[in-house]
From TrEMBL:
It comes from Shivajiella indica. PANTHER family: L-THREONINE 3-DEHYDROGENASE, L-THREONINE 3-DEHYDROGENASE, MITOCHONDRIAL. This is NAD-dependent epimerase/dehydratase family protein. InterPro entries: Epimerase_deHydtase (IPR001509), NAD(P)-bd_dom_sf (IPR036291), NAD(P)_epim/dehydratase (IPR051225). Belongs to the NAD(P)-dependent epimerase/dehydratase family. Residues 2-239 form the NAD-dependent epimerase/dehydratase domain.
Length: 313
């Protein structure tokens, strides 16, 4: 069976559906700490799980004969800065336990998301390479960098088949904006279809690597189903699709909503965004296991504006 930890999150909400479509709902167990959030998982098995509750997690893995774990639970960048030690504890202790569990229970595969947040202010900003200086200055980024080191360690030392992607900002319409610095790009669509003015917490020219959720789901499943020998990088793969700024995404929406308006009020999240790259070189993912993105900004905007107005949360 396939276990998703943090299934009700932005990535989990869509990845769980994709995994159930692939393996059948009875083979997928969606878990999250928030009981109410599990109501939407009527197409697969679901159960409340606090990822920090290690004995419950171990019992669940044994009882349900889990062979794959997608560990998606984490505190994101902006929220993490408000509660650094809690964010570090949750992000790190939970990963270490999942890796140890994979080793002890001889699980087949583990998936754990990393992020462009592993890059810091002195990382090359344009076409950021797969291997480069990484001095992240957010708790979230520090936890993702440390997590990458642990993933590679458990693969090399114990043969745990853990795989990972450094996601850019993920944009989707099936979950509400969360605690991410890139979540302005989710919120902007909600404001547009509600006929409201949008206040951007990032400056208009803040370029960030971004990806539409269907591309992120495809990359995740492509990586997890690639033959083992093709997965040559066991820290985490750079992954990219597009880069845009608040002004550019606003313009792409305004083409469909001519009366839409924006203003810019940068806050603490500007410094986080400024510490991240403008664009990412993901040639290794494309070479090693055939990654290829489908969505650019215009195509994403058309798809979101088509679906969001009638999507029920
Ligand atoms: C965040 N959405 O903003 C996440 C992501 C690259 C950004 O890691 O924290």
């Amino acid at each position: 069976r396939v276990l998703i930890i943090g299934a009700a999150g932005q990535l989990g909400s869509e990845l769980t559906q994709a995994l159930a479509n692939m393996y059948g709902g009875d083979q997928v167990i969606a878990t999250d700490i928030n009981p109410r959030s599990l109501e939407k998982f009527d197409y697969c098995k679901s159960q409340v799980l606090d990822v920090m509750d290690q004995s419950s997690l171990k019992k669940l893995v044994q009882k349900e004969n889990v062979k794959h774990i997608y560990h998606l639970a984490a505190v994101l960048s902006a929220t993490g800065e408000k509660n650094p030690l809690f964010a570090w504890g949750l992000n790190m202790d939970s990963l270490l336990f999942v890796l140890e569990l994979a080793k002890e229970e001889k699980l087949d595969k583990i998936y754990w998301p990393s992020s462009i947040a592993v890059f810091g202010p002195n990382t090359p900003k344009i076409n950021t390479p797969q291997f480069c200086v990484k001095e992240p200055n957010t708790v979230y980024g520090i936890s993702k960098q440390a997590g990458e080191r642990w993933c590679e360690y458990y693969f090399q030392k114990f043969g745990v088949d853990v795989r990972s992607l450094r996601y850019p900002g993920l944009i989707g319409y099936k979950s509400l904006p969360g605690g991410g610095t890139t979540d302005y790009a989710v919120d902007i669509y909600h404001k547009a279809i509600a006929g409201k003015h949008f206040v951007s917490f990032l400056k208009e020219d803040t370029l960030l690597p971004m990806m539409y959720m269907p591309d992120a789901i495809k990359a995740t499943l492509d990586l997890m189903h690639a033959p083992k020998e093709q997965v040559k990088i066991r820290s985490s793969y750079n992954l990219a699709a597009m880069s845009f700024s608040p002004k550019e995404i606003f313009e792409s929406i305004k083409a469909h909503y001519p009366n839409f308006t924006i203003s810019y009020e940068p806050d603490f999240r500007q410094a986080i965004a400024d510490s991240w790259p403008d664009s990412i070189d993901d040639s290794r993912a494309r070479e090693d296991w055939g990654w290829n993105h489908q969505y650019d900004l215009q195509k994403m905007t058309v798809d979101i504006l088509e679906h969001l107005p009638t999507y029920s949360f």
